[in-house]
Specification:
With 501 residues, the protein is of the alpha/beta class. The chain is 40% helix and 18% strand. Strands 1, 2, 7, 8, 9, 10, 11, 18, 19 and 20 form a ten-stranded mixed beta sheet that branches. A four-stranded antiparallel beta sheet has the order 13-14-16-15. The chain has a two-stranded antiparallel sheet with strand order 3-4. The longest helix has 25 residues, at 268-292. The chain is globular, with a radius of gyration of 24 Å. It binds zinc ion. Residues 38, 85, 257, 261, 442 line the site of zinc ion (ZN).
Length: 501
């Protein structure tokens, strides 16, 4: 009897998980991927009652439409040690961890060139995805249908570049000085005519009349509106979804992060931003529906590149142990110890500190005739026990597979790139951020930084709230599955098979 019920169970389970070949073979005409920068998971739950009702104002609806019609994973995760924009967008598009993407930080220090390297910078083209060392779901789609269009837009260059991948047809971002949509010659000589038209409209509208105020406007709902406008222009002018095969439109809304770093997630400014995003997403979805005639052949995904910590003031007022770690005060203690142990060099011991990664100065080590391993060990000793420091990882120890404890070690392994990451990586205690980089920040693998929503909706996809674990790296292989393409080359995510009906 037991055996029979087991057989029945396996039979039922296998039947309910299978898609019919007919459904599988029917590919979407358009895949729209939306990313909200710094959109922590609780924005959707906290303000849900204030979002537009589905179908209100003759529109499709915003977040309420997405969470009620889509497969909604309230707790999707970034399983890495440090959550930030460039690595996050690269993980979304490639389904891969940073050790594969080559992008473990937004920027890192190049010890031999003695300068910081930005994740999207390119000596030949200015900006390009050439530091991204693997393929994206858009790149893979082009293997099965070369004429598929792949378009990516965002205010931030690194966001659209990482989303668009290597073979994107159009990738646009906003020039932070000229305040117009631009691209690089990696993609094209100049932006398409429809982007020029939008740029002219922006100039005529006088929205950026006051240059001083202009950049501040990007961190208000104006930035969200501008992003929606350029995405809609791409949709219509490139006839996305109407080219006879699957097209991809990827949009990242950067304003949320720009404001979030100043005001923090618990501020009225970020509530206003979230409600504005709800309205803009409703307008955008309505434009897609009108353009396509219906949303029946459209797959829509929404996620974020990372979350954010509460502001230190908010955390302290909430009686949490929280604070700011000041690099210069830390260096003073470290240098005292190193000077005493090895003698004072004529150069600085540490060349740079970037996002809790510290890079030793090889010239100082050479002068004092000490090895990297010796210095790293002393720095680790000096930093251990400093306020806000939980653990310290060093490159020499990582090379010997001596890792931070438990989950921290796993998170580090998925992210770490020798040479990009620093000699010393500081793992802060929860609710500690670095002083001086931004008043509010995200740089850890803690739940507030790593937990984001993931929503996928479209034909074949079962609506509902999914309590099981999803990782953000599951999105790319899932989209590849839907598109009938290969998963990106180094995917470590899985196809979210439970969402299909
Ligand atoms: Zn940020």
């Amino acid at each position: 009897m037991k055996y029979l019920s087991l057989v029945l169970f396996i039979f039922v389970a296998s039947v309910s998980n299978a898609l019919t070949l007919e459904k599988y073979n029917k590919k979407p005409k358009l895949v729209v991927v939306m990313v909200i920068d710094q959109f922590r998971a609780d924005y959707l739950t906290k303000y849900q009652k204030e979002f537009m009702p589905v179908g209100a104002k003759n529109e499709v609806g915003g977040f309420n439409y997405l969470i009620s019609k889509g497969a909604y994973f309230p707790f999707a995760e970034y399983d890495v040690l440090q959550s930030m924009t460039c690595p996050g967008h690269a993980m979304i598009s490639t389904g891969s961890h940073p050790y594969f993407t080559g992008i473990s930080l937004n920027e890192w220090y190049d010890v031999s060139a003695k300068k910081k390297t930005y994740c999207a910078e390119d000596s030949e083209f200015g900006m390009s995805p050439r530091r991204l060392k693997t393929s994206t779901f858009g790149d893979e789609l082009k293997n099965v249908s070369e004429s598929s269009k792949v378009i990516a837009v965002a205010l931030k260059d690194r966001s659209s570049i990482m989303l668009g991948g290597h073979r994107s047809d159009v990738t646009l971002w906003m020039d932070q000085v000229d305040l117009k949509w631009i691209t690089s010659t990696y993609y094209q000589k100049e932006v398409p005519a429809w982007a020029k038209t939008v740029n002219e409209r922006i100039v005529k509208s006088g929205v950026f009349k006051n240059r001083e105020e202009a950049k501040k406007l990007l961190m208000t709902p104006v930035g969200v509106e501008l992003t929606r406008e350029i995405a809609e222009a791409a949709l219509k002018s490139e006839k996305l979804g109407k080219n006879g095969q699957t097209d991809i439109l990827a949009v990242s809304f950067s304003s949320h992060d720009m404001a979030g770093h100043t005001y923090g997630p618990n501020s009225p400014e970020l509530k206003a931003m979230t409600l504005a995003e709800d309205k803009e997403i409703s307008k955008f979805l309505t434009a897609i529906k009108n353009h396509m005639g219906s949303l029946n052949d459209v797959v829509i995904a929404l996620t974020a590149d990372h979350g954010v910590a509460p502001s230190v003031d908010y955390a302290q007022a909430s009686k949490l142990d929280s604070g700011r770690i000041e690099y210069l005060a830390m260096y003073k203690k470290i240098y005292e110890r190193l000077d005493q142990k090895f003698g004072r060099p004529s150069k600085e011991w540490i060349s740079a500190g970037v996002s809790f990664n510290f890079y030793l100065n090889p010239e100082a080590l050479k002068e004092r005739k000490v090895t990297v391993e010796q210095v790293e060990a002393e720095v680790k000793e000096a930093m251990t026990g400093m306020p806000g420091v939980l653990q310290i990882a060093t490159s020499s120890e990582i090379a010997k597979n001596i890792l931070p404890t438990g989950e921290l070690g796993k998170q580090l392994t998925r992210q770490y790139i020798a040479g990009n990451n620093g000699n010393i990586i500081l793992i802060p205690k929860p609710f500690y951020i670095s002083k001086g980089e931004a008043p509010v920040n995200h740089m850890t693998g803690y739940a507030y930084d790593r937990t984001v929503p993931l929503i996928i909706l479209g034909p074949k996809i079962k609506a509902g709230v999914y309590a099981n674990q999803a990782k953000v790296i599951d999105l790319a292989p899932t989209l590849s599955f839907i598109n009938g393409a290969l998963p990106p080359a180094t995917t470590t995510g899985r196809v979210l098979s439970e969402i299909f009906e």
